[in-house]
Amino acid sequence: MERVQLADTNLMVHPLHLGGNPFGWGADRDQSFAVLDAYAEAGGNFIDTADAYSAWVDGNSGGESETIIGEWMASRGNRDDMVIATKVGAHPKRRGLDPANIRKCIDASLRRLGTDHVDVYYAHSDDESIDQVAVAETFDALVRSGKVSYLGASNFTVDRLQSAMKISAQYSLACYRVVQDRYNLVSRGAVDAQKQEYLRAQGIAELPFHSLASGFLTGKHTGGDATGSVRGERVADFLENQEALRALEILDDVASAHNASMTATTLAWQLSHDFIPSTIASARVPEQLTQLLAGTELKLADDEITALNEAWVEA
Fold it and tell me: What is the DSSP letter of 147?
């Protein structure tokens, strides 16, 4: 799969943006290294993490994913080949976008990742308690210092994203070039038509997470069994939603027409959107990468994309 340009940056990335969320809890160090090796061997170069991963696990303190990724890059000597994205603001002990917190957190992330810069640095979520000008100035300073190449915003409403972008333009500060939102076949509310239009107009890339709806869109839980997955319990709401199940049937029909998996097909649907150059998905073992990577190669027909577009109406 050819790499694609990430918005108007100079970053060329693989269409599969490997999620580092499982590293350090769903996958131990050795398993994580195996996944990262398999991804790199397949031509992958874009890895997503956060300082908060995985502070929610008993015995973890946050930063485990960054540490594993940093150790892997150091052992393989491939930092220059990788595009690394991490985030600030959601760590339970370092929450929010206070300027002092941002400055401390980027330095901690760089230490764990074993690098002098990150390619994309996200506000993990919006923080309305902090003046947006102060946030913008702090992020701009990180870009000017060389610690950060480009900025991203995760989980921002379109109104707050617009406000932040206006401030960056007004004060000639570095602006957000990419965003992350929950967006998949059965969960589209965070990237509605208004936000899509704004992203296109601004040339901002959307890099959706929860691409497989916590495994629901793989089809493996249709029998009602959510075991075998560290996130399996999250699919329960979808399993009780008739509209979601109908969307899954349509997804299955399209996948069958291509002799492809539902996993690959739902990623191909995401990548058919002109504002999504790369989609985030994670793997706990290398074998799971096969279907994820297949989604970056699968091309859907226009009528199939239309059918999937119409398969779900957000409540």
Answer: S
As a whole number, mean pLDDT of residues 134-154 equals 98
Cis peptide before 109 (omega within 30 of 0): no
Other beta carbons within 10 angstroms of residue 121's beta carbon come to 24
Q: What is the pLDDT of residues 180-232, one digit of tens each?
A: 999 999 999 999 999 999 999 999 999 999 999 999 999 988 765 544 444 55
Q: What is the DSSP string of 189-200?
A: GGG-HHHHHHHH
Q: Could you give the CA distance from residue 205 to residue 118 in angstroms, rounded to a whole number?
A: 18
User: Scanning the structure block, which residue is given the tokens 């075991």?
Assistant: 227
203: nearest Cα among 176, 174, 184, 173: 176
Spatial CA neighbour of 253 closest among 183, 312, 311? 311
What single-letter amino acid sits at 215?
G
Whether residue 85 contacts residue 47, with contact meaning beta carbons closer than 8 Å, is answered with: yes
- The single-letter code of the amino acid at 67 is T
Rounded to whole angstroms, the Cα distance separating 195 from 314 reads: 15
* Alpha carbons 211 and 225: distance in angstroms, whole number: 20
Task: Report pLDDT for 172.
Answer: 98
Specify whether the CB–CB gap between 157 and 125 falls below 8 A. Answer: no
Structure tokens at 143: 């870009």
Task: Single out the residue of 172, 177, 168 nearest to residue 135, CA to CA.
Answer: 168
**Which amino acid does the sequence have at 32?**
S
Q: How many residues does the chain have?
A: 315
| pLDDT of 68 above 80 | yes
Q: Is 256 exposed, middle or buried (0-12, 13-18, 19+ CB in 10 A)?
A: exposed
